[in-house]
Amino acid sequence: MIAPAAFVERYRKLLLLLTAAWVGSGVIIYLWVPLTTPVMLLLSPVAPVAWYLATRLRLPPHRPSAVTLALVLAGVYLSLNASWSLSPATAHLAMAMFYVSTVALYFLANTLPVSDDDVLRAMAIGLYGGLVIGGAALSFETFSSQLMRRIMMSIVPALRPKPVDMLLDGGWVTFVEPFLINRNITAMTSLFWPTALAVFLLAPKTRRQHWWLIGLVPIVAGILGSKHATSKIAFAGAALVFATFQFAPTVARRMVAWAWTGTIILVVPLAIIAYQNRLYLSTWIPPSAQHRIAIWGYTSNQIAKAPIMGAGIDTSRARNGPQGYDVQFAPGSDFGLPTGMHSHNDYLQTWYETGAVGALMLLVIGLLVLSSLARSSLQVQPYLYASFATSALLGGTSFSLWQPWFMASFGLTAVFAMLGWAMADRSSAQGRVASDRFTL
Question: Residue 122 domain-assigned?
Fold first, then answer.
């Protein structure tokens, strides 16, 4: 029987190819079926841990960092908070996803920095290939009114959405609502900057622009051509951070840190001010944004009922009422005033459901992550900070913080950002990039 190390050495090229295919197929699945993201995140440590075990016959070193300890502390508090949630089933599911994400990221943060160069390269190639293939198909869907999906839905009726979200003609799906692809666009947006970093580290300097243009321009077109405003805002905001780094890195770092701090501290008073001034009646604001301003104002007013410890994880879902003749409306409008299935703002949702304690923990975790990013190479900081900004902005106006797929998406963004960071650190060891080792 061949020893694991000897087996790996004999079939190394094949195993590296399989590693790239493993990562690439996972990225494609994530892009096309975002609800599978928790599974993708759970499987993400498999390749690096397997390589490490096979070549060194022991587990990778374990070194908890400040971010790890903060996440553990947050998990303890959130578990307590979930005990008084009015939606216990979804609260417990959210906590399970939180634990899975923390464990997966912990293993990756301790394994990637000590992985072999060619293993890291194979994973980065898989990331690039997966985003190029899956993203190009999604961009085609964006500009073809989801042609491939409509064909699949026509052939397989089980894939069809609710009748109100599509049109049928002779058994064929001729139209589906554009918002049905919003999750996919979100996934594509979240991986853009980690993939751009992978190209920066993989490709020779003279050919980087070619790989960026060939692979990433269709991704940008798909994001900007979609109907998902939050992804557009996230992409534009991250691009601003990236551009600022090119001429004023210190300003860019401070800008992101202060924006993170200000958002968490000011989100409640700003939501109340917008509601009290009836911005939801402004005709220059899109209808969906008008409705969200009304929801934000109502939710902000509910925070005072449990300002310190919060109403409980995912309580918004249970209080998504009353309905019918008892529903209240924002003054002067026909916008109903329940909390909604969620607040459409993860920061406001944090304040409402986990209170000031949860908001403080979120603030601290974000600042600890930014402090860690500041220790990376100046050459990779623009990409890492842009990845952070993308995730922060995606949480601003879109999905519920506690949806398992959305929580796991943040985790996958971190996974691939850490992959690029590890590659940069390895280049530093070879004298090409100056960088400190990252920690999680």
Answer: yes
